[in-house]
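Residues pack. One example:


***
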Amino acid sequence: MKNNNIHKNFKLNNTSFTTKEELLKFSKEINDSVFSFLSDWFNNDDFVIVQTSGSTGTPKPIQLKKEFMTNSALATGEFFNLKESTSALLCLSTDYIAGKMMLVRALVLGWNLDVVHSVSNPLKGLENQYDFSAMVPMQLRNSLSELHKIDKLIVGGGVVSNDLIDAIQNVSTKVYATYGMTETVTHIAVKKLNNFSKFRGETIKKSVYKTIPDVNITQDSRNCLVIQAPKVSEEKVITNDVVNLVSETEFEWLGRYDNVINSGGVKLHPEKIEEKLSLIISNRFFVIGIDDEVLGERLVLVVEGKNQFIDFSKTKNLTKYEIPKEIYFVNEFIETETKKIQRKKTLNKVLK
């Protein structure tokens, strides 16, 4: 498909189009963001300007080739077996790559795409059934009672907590966590979160990320993931994500290299500690290191909400090094526009 063509099966909010002018006029009635992106998609440039989320630094605009975005859409369609006339729901902001790519997938693969507001409970009041959608963890949590309206769901933009994973084990929807970034045109790997097989009568919940087609993964000297995906990126992408390579196509994500806490010579991965703490803490929280004259850094816990007693002895998985030295409570976390927690800014808010 050329960028100035529309797939014959493509529909937006159940409406078909014969020309891009018709589509652009219609999209203007949906919202400015959808119209703006489609205008960029159909112009004569071979790239679009996309804003990074800002979760690990200052948000910045980058150029993405339309060819790469098309390739990413085709790979997603192949991986999830999503063919022409797939019904899909777009409930993410099209200001960012995840929302933009739902539009591209629909245009390239010929889907029937419904667009709704990017709210915390996007399925509320909807009557239609959908083959595919994408959400952030907060939307998934607020949509549990109506999740049956979606057959396959990808979740990105943040870690899915253990209690949320437990909550989706008995739903019919096939839920997947995604790994990716703006620079890789959204996800390059996918991990099952439910619908696990049983082994000797017990459900095996352990799952690792599996790469989508045409993606090669290695590690650098820091044990961080290195991605070679020539169909979506001209350059090798060196990440700050510490991983354990399970095979040539599979990896376990351990956490961010820039989040690693060196406490008295012991390296602590906050994301792994948070996974253990999520068994005893229901509020949103994170752990982080702060300067310490003796240890270099000491591990502290930051919880969103009112003061409460937290009994660390309730989870036997924590080592003595992984038990936070202090607990701070804050009314509200500072977030990016895509609802990712800004750890350092939140910590500074607490310490002030």
